[in-house]
Each structure stands twice: as structure tokens, then as C-alpha cells.
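Annotators were shown the component list below and the corresponding predicted structure, then asked to write short factual statements about the assembly.
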Amino acid sequence: MASSRSPSGRVVNDNIHGDIALTDAEWKVVNTATFQRLRSLKQLGMGHLVYPNATHSRFAHSLGVFRIMCRVLGNLDHSGLDTERKAELRQAALLHDIGHYPYSHLMERVGSVTLTEEEVTNAGKKTISGQVDEYPDHEELGRHIIQSQADICKALGGKKQAQKIGALFSRLEGADQQLSKLIHSSLDMDRLDYLLRDARAAGVPYGEIDLNYLLNSIRISPTGMLGVDEKALAAAEHFLLARVFMHRVVYYHKTTYGFEEACRQLLRRVRDSDRYNDLLARDGNHINEICGGADLRGFTDDYVDRVIYRAARDDQDPVIQTLAACLVERCPPRLLLEVGGVEEKIHSYTPATVFRQKCRDGLVDLAKRHRLNVGQFLLCGPKPIKFEERGSLFSRADAEKLKPEEREELIMVFRKGRSEPQSIVDITGSIIKSLSNQVFSIQRLYLVDRDIKPDKLERIRGEVRLWAQPPK
Amino acid sequence: MDRQQILLAKSLEAAEVPLSVNTFHDRLILQKAVYLLQAAGIHLGYRFRWYIRGPYSPDMTSGAFGIANEGEYAEAELRGWKLDDESATRARNLHSLLHQEGESKTDQARRLELLASALFLFKTDQAKPGDPEGTATILKRNNKEFSAAEVKSAVKELRAHGLLA
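Structure shown to annotators:
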């Protein structure tokens, strides 16, 4: 890996990108306690429970994204960007994950979790409240952190600059929409780093993208549109496919995802019980309090671990006990059935939606017959993964009618002889055009019961399999 | 469908905004209506970023498409849920901001784009409600053709509905 020069002599060695050089100002940011917290956040949530080496941190990933941004900006020397703007984009890349929660996305999404009994119980109308102040997302929290933590605010050069950097990584600014794509789009620096880093850490080949070729092919059009040269079309397609493979194999691994879903449901239950207010943030306001003060130092993976240990040791609620024990003792939730896969997403009927409906109709009875608590079942569907940011939301014909503003996050490709790029889903013969109306979507049903006998488990699986039959 | 999608569907229902994703204007109206519903104090949990047409949430787009794609299955699931009273009241109070008698879809989309974009700029300290000319200039810089008079009127509407102090 080629090394990069540093005028300040500050260089960090990284297993993915080699030497990463930082300026004195960037070095100051990295050396704040606020940035160092990222060392204690695992990039892959609970992925290490399946892939033992997947213990790499948000800290390493943030440096990796920073390095990629530096390379891209180096390739865009003729873009008209001034030195100051480039420095801001470098800082935004470095800090784009500063607001991450313990175990990454796991804790952040606690409010969206539907408890199994909420979903399958049909006694009267259930109330959903829009008055719960849910946890803010990590970008919003990141903006709050860099403006309220004195060490990082000072390292950035004051509150005004901190606001500017926060606006860049959370895309609040109207200006530089194309450059914001470097941080948020299908071909953003975040994805370019995490696919490679996560694949290497997990020991799987699926995220091995052609990073150098892609980065060297990025250019900017006379009207400011970012894209890759047509010669890098295969590399861009491989990158998009790699993302789907990585979700299938690593991010949505049945065991990892089972543990994470058990943890999400556990956190939602204990948060709502009000018995853990000393350990777990009650709401978004409480999260902001923690992250705006000295308690941020302890807002690491250990923060969630402490909740799990307390629940396993002290909680009298049988479902909370069961979920906590499964995590503490590493007894994976048992997958009863997975339905779905890569499918065309233009009809309401899919095996996954039918299965979910059948679970809603039959789970209460199934639990009763097998003397289990409904809460021991985890009915969950990971976020569907699209091949391209917009494509799969539409039929292919509809995708071709999208307005320019709706295509904004698509990868753009410079065809030979053309000064302005076109989107990858419009290129005849590209794999992504063919797959643009496909989505990787699954539904799963797990059972959490560390003591279940194999024959009973098989009987339950046999019953659940019948729910995957398509309607006549 | 997760809790966020259920809340989205029930809030839109209370505000009488169709969860339709068929045309560009449908999707534009949906985006801006959800942004305004959140500003009115319904915690839907979507993060809006600044795009060519103002505040836009990719997650909201995915969530709305997810519901629309599930068709009758989504309808069946949603029938079991009701929105809490406070949120329902807030959504109903916004009705007259989101809809105007006899307005075409194109006009509605344009009006909501202005309301949401101006509010976004005010909330992120990029513009001031007391400076319609300055706000219109920023909007123009972002390829939006809204006059200072239109901005002024939008500020009045936002204030009347409690979205601006």
C-alpha cells in the first residue's frame, strides 16, 4: 500500500489503507477524549459473536473514511475546491461517525422495535404514540456532540467551525450537494471503507472491492456532477453487489442478527419499564444530556453490556430474564424459519409479507400450545437492501421516469465522449440496470429458549414451516 | 412493518395526506408533509437532509415505499392500530396548512416545498424568518424560484400553525 506524506509527521498505520497522514489540526481532533471514545464502539455490533476477529472499532473506520476522502480530494485537484473547503471535507469525513451509539446501530433503533406481543396480539386497537421523544439518529447526535464537547469543539477551532463541520456530515447545507455525495450516496466514502474493513475482519471475501480503481476513476463534470469513468463500470457494479453479499453473509448473519434482535427487544423492554433509568437513557432528551456532558466517556459498548448484566442478574420479568441470559451466556436465539431473499418489489404479495401475516395469526396459539411466552419469539425483518439507492423502489419503467432530484444518490457514470455523467441504472447492458427493481428482503422468526429440547424445537419448526406456504 | 412505519401511516391518515408514491408530486407532498408533521411535534423519527427540493429523508422514502408495496397486507396490519390522541390533534391542526381548497397537486407540492424548505433553513440557522429577501436569495441559490413575498406569506402561515415562534 502506498504511503502518504504528512507535513506534520503525524501518521497512523492502518491495516486496510496503510499510512494515514494527518495535519496538526486533524491530529488534535483525533487526540480528544471525545474522538477516542470511538475505540470502544465495535464497528460490527455483535458480529464478533460469530466472527471472532470482527472486533474492529468505529475509530479505525473513521480514520479509513478520512483517508479515502483525502485520496478523492487529491484526485479532484482541478475541481475548483479551495484549500479551506477541502480541509472541512476531510474533517467531516473524520467525524462522520462521532455520534455513534454503543453497538453501533443496535441501540440507536430501539424505538423502532416492535415487541412480538405488540404485533401478534389483536385484542382491540393498539395505540401508537407520536409523543415519545425517541433517541436521535447518530448524525444528529454527532452534531450535538461536536458542538457541546469542549475538547473537540476547541480542536476544531470553535463552535462556529464545529457547526459547519456538523452541517457537512449531516448534510444540512444547501451548498455543495455534489460534494455531500462523498459522505451520503450510493458511492460514499463510508461504504467504500466499511465493506473492505468488515470483510477483512470477518475473514470473508465478499467485500473485497476494487478500491484503488474506483477512487482513481472518480471525476467531476463542468456542472459539478460527481461520477466514475465508464471504464470503472464493472468496479462500480461489483461494489454495489458486494454490499448486498456482505449484508447476506455478515451483517444479517442469522446468529448475529438473532443476538442483536434479542438485545434490541431487551433494551426496548427495560427502557419502557422505567426500572433502569440509572443505567439506560429514558428518551432522546436523556441521550442528549449524556452526550453533552462528561458521561459521554462511558457511552460505549460497555454501557449496553451493563444493562444486559443487570437484567440477567436481577430482573424478575421472565422474558427480560430469558433475553438477557441468552446474551450473557451466548446461547443464540434459534432460527425457526427464514423467508424471502432477492425478489422483485412491485407486488404486495411476497413470501415474506405472507409469512409475517401468518405469524400474526398463529403465534399466540403456537406459544400457548408449547407453553412458551410470546415474548420469547422474535419476529423480525432486517432492513431490505437495494442494489442501488433508488432503483428497487420502483419498477424498471418507473425508475426511468425519475426526476433528477430523485436520482441524486445514484452512482453516476461518465460515458465515453460525454462531459456530463448519467446514472448507472440507465446504462444499457449494466448489471445494475437489470437488478434495479430487485431487493434483498427477508423475514425471520426466532425462538429464545436456552433449555429447549431438540425434539420440541423440531416440532415447532415443523409447524412454522407451514406458515411459509403461499396463499391458494 | 416496524413501529416507525406504523406511526408514519397513522400520522398521515390523521392529517389526511395520502400515502401515495405513484408520481413525483405525490412523493414531494409526502416528504414535505412528514417534515412539517415532525416540526409540529409528532416524533416520527426521520432525519431530514437538504436536497435539491429542500428537506428530504431517504429513510422516509424507503419506509413509505415499504408500506405502499405491501398493499393489502399493510392495510390489514394498520387496522389494528390507532394514533395517540395528542398526536392526532396535532396532525389535525396542521390540516389547513397541508391542504387548501381547490388546490392542484402541482400547486400543493410547490407550496409545501416552500413551507418545508423555509422552515428547514430557519431551524438550521441558515436564514432568519424576519428576512424574507435573504431567505429567498438562499432558496434561489438552491435553484428554487420563490419570491420574498411568497416567503413572507409562508412565514405567516408557519407562525399561525405554531411551527415558528
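Statements collected:
1. Chain A touches chain B through 51 residues (CB under 8 Å).
2. The first strand of chain A starts at residue 10 and ends at 14.
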